[in-house]
Amino acid sequence: VLDSQYGMYVWPCAVVLAQYLWAHRRSLPGKRVLEIGAGVSLPGVVAARCGAQVILSDSEELPRCLQSCRSSCLMNRLPHVPVLGLTWGRVSPELLSLAPIDIILGSDVFFDPKDFEDILTTIYFLLEKNPHAQFWTTYQVRSADWSIEALLYKWKLKSIHVPLHSFGADKEHLASSSLPGRHTIEMMIISLAQSDGT
């Protein structure tokens, strides 16, 4: 835990997503994984330690977050994991030149509703390039009024809810935080909605 700024803190969602990766560790060797909004990069580091080929990314406008990604890699003996500046909603040369990926990770990226469409625009772009890939994401329920359902429909994406108990992440201590308030965490897997040709 570094400090409680956006990308400089191990948020409860990161711990839950890391638990999901650990529960699926036997399927990770050789998988190509991109973590977006990585910050401290706990999920990406776990995936890399489990044998995945990982790329970490955070906003190109947040150099401290990108440095945090690099520091996490060094502390976990992963000096060769690439760290890219990718800003949600922006088509950049780095985004265009990404190698094929199998899994996109995002823990607590659905934090501010003003970013939701930019995130899903980026996810849609990545899934269009990698139609068999999935976006594994955890998020904290902060408001009953916040929803991405309409945006999923707009961008022709579908989501599957993943119950936390199905991978041992429903324990109180797992997603606890020293920050005030309740920390209800949810997980979903987002993929392209399959066209049935009609």
From TrEMBL:
Q: By its UniProt entry, which SUPFAM superfamilies does this protein fall under?
A: S-adenosyl-L-methionine-dependent methyltransferases
One Pfam entry name: Methyltransf_16
Q: What keywords does the record list, in alphabetical order?
A: Chromatin regulator, Cytoplasm, Developmental protein, Methyltransferase, Nucleus, S-adenosyl-L-methionine, Transferase
Q: What is a biological process (GO) this protein takes part in?
A: methylation
Localization: Cytoplasm; Nucleus
Instruction: List, alphabetically, the GO terms of the cellular component aspect.
Output: cytoplasm; nucleus
Presence of keyword Transferase: yes
Q: What is its main location?
A: cytoplasm
A GO molecular function term, named singly, is: protein-arginine omega-N asymmetric methyltransferase activity
Q: InterPro entries from the xrefs?
A: Methyltransf_16, SAM-dependent_MTases_sf
Report the catalytic activity.
L-arginyl-[protein] + 2 S-adenosyl-L-methionine = N(omega),N(omega)-dimethyl-L-arginyl-[protein] + 2 S-adenosyl-L-homocysteine + 2 H(+)
Summary of the function given for this chain in its UniProt record = Histone methyltransferase that dimethylates histone H3 at 'Arg-17', forming asymmetric dimethylarginine (H3R17me2a), leading to activate transcription via chromatin remodeling. Maternal factor involved in epigenetic chromatin reprogramming of the paternal genome in the zygote: mediates H3R17me2a, promoting histone H3.3 incorporation in the male pronucleus, leading to TET3 recruitment and subsequent DNA demethylation.
So what family is this one in? Belongs to the methyltransferase superfamily. METTL23 family.
* The protein's assembly and partners: Interacts with HSPA5, HSP90B1, TUBULIN, UGGT1 and UGGT2. Interacts with TET3. Interacts with STPG4.
Protein name from the UniProt record: Histone-arginine methyltransferase METTL23
* Protein's organism: Edolisoma coerulescens
Q: Where is the organism placed in the taxonomic lineage, from the top?
A: Eukaryota, Metazoa, Chordata, Craniata, Vertebrata
